[in-house]
Amino acid sequence: MRKLKINLQNCYGIKHLKKDFDFSQQKTCVIYASNGAMKTSLAKTFKDLSNGVNSKDLIFPNRETIREIKNEDDNDITKEQVFVIEPYNDNEDFNSEKMSTLLVNNKLKKLYDEIHIKIDEKKDDLLKELKILSGLRSDIEKEISDDFTHTDSQLFVSLTRVQKEVLDSSEPEFSDISYKEIFNDKVITFLETKDFKRKLAEY
After folding, report:
1. Residues 14 and 41 sit within 8 Å (Cβ to Cβ)
2. Which end of the chain is more exposed for a tag (fewer CB within 10 A), N or C?
3. DSSP of 99-118, one letter per residue?
4. Can you state the angle between helices 106-134 and 140-149, rounded to 10 degrees?
5. Digits of tens for pLDDT over the chain (203 positions)?
6. Which residues are CB-neighbours of 36 under 8 A, at least 6 positions away?
7. Rounded to whole angstroms, how far apart are CA atoms 182 and 49?
């Protein structure tokens, strides 16, 4: 494959991305995203292709999604041509028929394992702190993931969505309110009532 042409719209937060990647002179291309979310969204989109499923926008599922990924001849690339190595996967049994290509090299396998161990350690440290600050007693990882992505296994995607606000040097406006006071079963039940939805629509 000498060229990879992508045209994406409303794919996991990617509003619109149209780009041709030229592989005629080199085998790799580097993509930079300042907030990190775009790279995760792009990886999820290619992951969908490799799994043979449609892509979508998790926050706005009703928006029309376009996913066109073609070669230099304007032919759709096949799922067999795509292999996504995720930075972290909550499924510890993650595997692929193509994984042997990566792991056949002992040096790469060792580096791969070390990276995942460090990620797990950092994640555990973060969840311990968040558990104290949020007031949540259990399933904090699933809770945060579901609140920001509507799925219970996308913690890192959730964190990228709030990264800008977290890194902002200004003092949080509602830092004195614990997370569990805002996101809990009683609040969710109230938000789902017809009376609240009607008043919100009127407002």
Report:
1. yes
2. C
3. HHHHHTSHHHHHHHHHHHHH
4. 90
5. 889 999 999 999 899 999 999 998 888 888 877 766 788 899 999 999 999 999 999 888 889 999 999 999 999 999 989 988 766 554 444 555 555 555 556 777 778 788 888 998 999 999 998 888 888 777 888 888 888 888 888 888 888 888 877 777 677 777 777 777 777 778 878 888 988 888 888 88
6. 160, 163
7. 37
CA 40 to CA 29: how far, in whole Å? 16
What is the layout of strands, in order, in the sheet containing 66-71?
A: 14-22, 3-11, 66-71
Please give the backbone phi and psi of residue 192, each rounded to the nearest 5 degrees, phi first: -90, -5
Please name which of 39, 46, 54, 112 lies closest in space to residue 84, comparing C-alpha atoms.
Answer: 46
Report the C-alpha gap between 191 and 128 in whole angstroms.
29
> Which residues have a Cβ under 8 Å from the Cβ of 58 and sit 6 or more positions away?
12, 13, 149, 150, 151, 154, 157
Question: Which residues, in sequence order, are CB contacts of 66 under 8 Å at separation 6+?
Answer: 7, 8, 9, 10, 11
- Any idea where the domains of the chain sit in the sequence? 3-84, 110-171
Would you state the structure tokens that stand for residue 107, as one six-digit string? 């040096």
Cα-based angle 153, 157, 159 (whole degrees, multiple of 5):
110
Strand partners, 16: 9
The pTM (predicted TM-score) of the whole model is 0.47
